[in-house]
Amino acid sequence: MPDTQTDAAPVPVRDAATVIVLREHAGAPHVLMGQRGAAAAFMPNKVVFPGGAVDEADATVPLARPLPPLCAERLREDCDRDLGQALAAAAIRELWEETGLALGTPGAWPGAAPPDWTGFAARGLVPRADALQFVFRAITPPGRPRRFDARFFLVHAEAIAGDPDDFSAACEELSHLQWVPLAEARRHDLPFITEVVLAEVSARAHDRTPPASVPFFRNDDEESLFLRLKGMPSA
Fold this sequence. Notes:
single chain; alpha+beta; two-stranded antiparallel sheet; 5 helices; about 20% helix; globular; disordered N terminus
């Protein structure tokens, strides 16, 4: 009988971006979260931040304003190619698709918008990445049906174009979209990594500058390590 554990093809690790939108409401910080469907292959029923895998077209999407230089530098660490542009675009696209909220600035696209961006462009907006802070990175452990190398971006809600309570343009991937008080978020059914990221967000709730050191929860077939991306030491 074949050993399905060893004979099965390894699950590929896909690059992904997740967005934590933080908002001051009623005197307290809130985060935007939604619930994945019961039939979802990855993290069914869990309450999560908006996010998903990088698409090939994301690398070609124009950004009206680039990522902060420090974030771009940290994204290049422990990575075999520069994915900053694609990850930033993926974060903005996933936020738009799953919540209907647009992180953009008024402007015209230099050409036709890719199919996933037509609704965004129709609002007269071009994506902006300058408000994104790269705050966490985590690779899904082996043995899961899907694996992602996820970069988590924090953005404050005032950077959103339009009404932050208007989810009418959202797709149906996340249900029960809501602004959750940061202090109460752990009461929901969360993935483990989301709980870890929430602790980092809580520590940075009032900090508007990108972190110099970014936590990195790296899982591979040999070991799991909790590292920090903090720049190469000077010679």
